[in-house]
Amino acid sequence: MQCVVLVPGIMGSVLKTPQGEEVWPPNPSEVVFGYDRLDQLLRDDLRATDIIRKVSCFNVYQPLIATLGQIGFREDDRESRLDIFCYDWRRDLEQTARHFSDHLNQLVRDGASSIVIVAHSMGGLVSRLALESPTFRGQAWFSQVQALFTLATPHRGAPLALARILGLDSCLGLSGDDIKRLAADPRYPSAYQLLPAPGEDACWDVTAPRLAPLNIYDGDSATRIGLNPSLVARAKFVHDSLATGQRPDHVRYFTFGATGHKTVTRVNLTAEEMTPTTTGDAGDGTVPMWSAFGPVEQKQLVRGEHASMFTGEEFDAVFWRLFGKDYPAPPLKLASRVRLSVHDLVIPCGEEIEVLLVPDQPTPEIRGGLTLAFTEDPDRAFTVVDDPMAISYSGPDVPHLRLLLPGLERPGHYQLGYQGAPGPGEPVLFSVQQR
Predict the structure, then answer these.
(1) Is residue 329 in some structural domain?
(2) What is the CATH number of the domain that holds 114?
(3) What are the pLDDT digits (tens) for 335-369?
(4) How many CB atoms lie within 10 A of CB 291?
(5) 187 and 53 in one domain?
(6) N or C terminus of the chain with fewer C-beta within 10 Å?
(7) 139-161: per-residue pLDDT in tens?
(8) Model pLDDT for residues 193-251, shown as the tens digit of each residue
(9) Is 310 buried (19+), middle (13-18) or exposed (0-12) by CB count in 10 A?
């Protein structure tokens, strides 16, 4: 049996109580008005039951599952199976790597003779810890793995993780204080394990002479800014393990990184406050390019946002080839469609919205309009809220246009679409969160 194992990233698995009550992901209302079940999310007895496929009408991993199905790997197929490793994304990555090893052993017992791992975001770190540690070299699954494909994995960590641990950023309905409290729980160190690797110097003391960096892996410095040194040590364990681990000679590594969006690249420290600094076109909105590409030799750059970078033809055309298949190009001429990408799935009220318009290939002309529709309940129809915003470009070939739209003050769910030439692609969905 040929098997593809899909490994999601942090916050990418459904968590339920032993009684079957779903605690994560947030429901659409919680995304907008705030997640109000943090005490439940801190429970020690939660279990991962599935990958997050969709939240209401919002796709999460369903597009990637569908693409793998088109390539020939499906969850109900006995010969070419798509297997999904869901896991408690709060836990220590060392522990999760052990569970992953047990999971792969079970696949081999079930008949898997060839395994390809497709890992998104933090899932790539889990996969590498299992593949590169000497701990698992003698396991039955180890010789059966043929390839590891990582998608938007923070191989060298992410400055955004530092900002969130410090309570400076919200995410999917979790407030900055919520994330800070969850990350500070010693039972759940995974957020810390996404910190920038030692030597990346992603925290600057801007009051120091010559902008001296602050070493977050130094105990006194970590304490100074409110980090837990024992949890920082768990981050160091991950990065040290990956730095000293041995990549298996028989496993092909290939990594996808995404760009085009403003991305947190450091945290600035003054005597009064800490402030995340974003850099335009530095990554996918979550992971900077320098981290997504990591140590892997063979790389592919696509344009898009962290959680949806695997939804465009730019990704598909290469991804299909990695499985030995030609991507079935649409029966229309090239540059016939424009794909949209918004810098985040959930945007605070009033925050400027960065939008990418990405044609199928560089084009000398983009003329059309953006339409914005709104709903309070994503299970109901969206209603257009404004006249189309005119878009007009004519000149040298451009690979994409980057637009900065004014922030939206009305909390809820939005659908952004494009009409014009080149032709429209799929609309993009995002939510605006109440501050």
Answers:
(1) no
(2) 3.40.50.1820
(3) 478 899 999 999 999 999 999 999 888 899 999 99
(4) 25
(5) no
(6) C
(7) 999 999 999 999 999 999 999 99
(8) 999 999 999 999 999 989 999 999 999 999 999 999 999 999 999 999 999 989 999 99
(9) buried
Residue 225 lies in a domain: yes
pLDDT in tens, 270-283: 988 999 999 999 99
Are residues 107 and 256 both part of a single domain?
A: yes
Residue 21's domain spans which residues? 2-157+244-264+273-322
Cross-strand bridge partners of residue 58: 55
Residue 406 lies in a domain: yes
**Are 402 and 371 within one domain?**
yes
- CB of 204 closer than 8 Å to CB of 269: yes
CB 151, CB 61: distance < 8 Å = no
191, 80: one domain: no
Q: Do the beta carbons of residue 133 and residue 241 sit within 8 Å?
A: yes
The answer to whether the beta carbons of residues 282 and 262 sit under 8 Å apart is yes
Q: Average of pLDDT values for 288-308?
A: 92
Tokens, residue 240: 């040290």
150 with 166, same domain: the answer is no
Counts of helices then strands in the chain (DSSP H, E): 11, 24
Task: Please say whether the beta carbons of 99 and 63 come within 8 A.
Answer: no
Q: What is the pTM of this model?
A: 0.94
Residues 20 and 145 in one domain: yes
| Assigned domain for 88 exists | yes
CA distance 203 to 312: 33
Residue holding tokens 């005597």? Answer: 271
Residue the block writes with tokens 């790389």: 299
How many Cα neighbours within 13 Å face the side chain of 52? 25
192: number of CA atoms within 13 Å, CB side? 29
CA 277/CA 172 separation, integer angstroms: 20
Residue 177: strand, helix, or coil: helix
Is the distance from CB of 417 to CB of 96 less than 8 angstroms? no
Q: State how far the Cα of 22 lies from the Cα of 228, in Å rounded to an integer.
A: 30
State how far Cα 426 lies from the chain centre: 20
Beta bridge partners of 391: 368
Take residue 49 and report the two structure tokens written for it: 């039951």
Q: What percent of the chain has pLDDT over 70?
A: 98
DSSP 180-196: HHHHH-TT--TTGGGSP
Residues 77 and 186 grouped into a single domain: no
Q: What is the DSSP letter of 152?
A: S
Closest CA to 290 of 198, 354, 213, 196: 196
Q: Kindly state whether residues 14 and 42 are assigned to the same domain.
A: yes
